[in-house]
């Protein structure tokens, strides 16, 4: 499958200007969550009253498609994730610093587009969806019945990014990219419960299954054009930060630089992109910037055990500055049994299922800029977002073959499992 034409990546000078301003502004504390109407209180809801779905964030048009979580993955409804767009833009245009960052995001990581929705989770009662909105530097809760805002939390700095939800569904952790900060919020009220410091540009977040720890991966300065390995030192402080999920105090930091060097791969970046834990959380699999493959890391022994290089696409431009935000491959998930990995080969325009025991890849399934990989509700399929084709595609973990594709909105990125009321067919507005 060929990718549809993409907007030319804008000059990075604005992004660099914005980054310079961040040095001054990064310490600014965010305002508390603003309630736009009474937030839905968490209530005990029977599982029979809820329906499992997949949420697909359409980054460039500011919508989220809600689709079936398995089977034919048919679309159920579409949600407007920026009902307050006019108000937010008015605030930005009146503030020169906010405007500089807003334009920097558009012309840098946004590839000429505004980033209106990144990550999403539903509340435990299934009544609301909570989303990070990078260009608006915030997190919002949207009522699924009305489409109206419940609350809004502006993050520190000028860009929000990836999130994670706690195992009990009551807290979310969101990365504030320009402020080296992760906020932890009450998912129902938007009130900040705590925060912690990270490396440069915090990215992925993970709660451990027992809810005791949060892992954050900082990726450094992906918006610069200094992508040649000789300039790797300019990319900033990139490491894993592990904190206590209740006190938000640091427990451990892990810089993969020394681990990669010990494994004989000093050529690889230490900027960790998407990752996946084994079911027992003893092993971490992760992608890094500029690499077509992934790395296996044993947590107890603190060492890299295997490195898998996946096929490159001969048609991929070798100029690393053309790779989206330093990502060659961006998207990694594991089936519930822990026997298969699914890899989104972003710049190589394919996805593939890899046997975990042998690290042998299966068929290379053509995909247009696949940018995320998750697992279907029934655990049978890997679901990837194809940002270049405006669709999501399911790949059977057992066979490695394509099972279904469903059209969604403009530039899908994050795909997350969630729950909505069983009879829900979309917001009223």
TrEMBL record:
This is WD40 repeat domain-containing protein. Keywords: Signal. Its cofactor is Cu cation. Residues 1-28 form the signal peptide. It comes from the Bacteria. Transmembrane segments: none annotated. InterPro entries: Host-pathogen_enzymatic-act (IPR051200), N2O_reductase_N (IPR011045), TAT_signal (IPR006311), WD40/YVTN_repeat-like_dom_sf (IPR015943). The keyword Signal applies.
